[in-house]
Sequence to fold (127 residues):
Amino acid sequence: MSPVVYSIIESPAHPNFSAVYHDLGLTEHKFVSMRKAIGSLKKHQPGWVVAEFFYGYGNNYAGINLSNLDVFLRSLQKYAPEARVLVLVDKEEYQYVDRLVDLFPLYAVLVHPVTEEDMARYLSESA
Fold:
């Protein structure tokens, strides 16, 4: 069985890396919401997660979470603690990622624009 990559696509800025995943022998599970990705964790534990970081300004995310990723990453720690997380982020929000790193282990943080070559390099480094 090939390793699973969760591709969590919450914005049009998220590049399509399906060809990269396929070329590296990964099985891609695409999600358009964190809720659906969390729901799938019990059935399919990913080896990789590729998701975008959106900082929770003001009262976003119920005011208790730092970003869109917090709840998912907590669930990931329970169901797939060995999964490697690659976070995509806009330059403007990069300053907030360190706060997320203080809470959760991340394999890499990639600043947009992220190319297929960039993604393939990170996924290949530890394959």
Q: What stands out?
A: The radius of gyration is 14 Å. The mean pLDDT is 92.
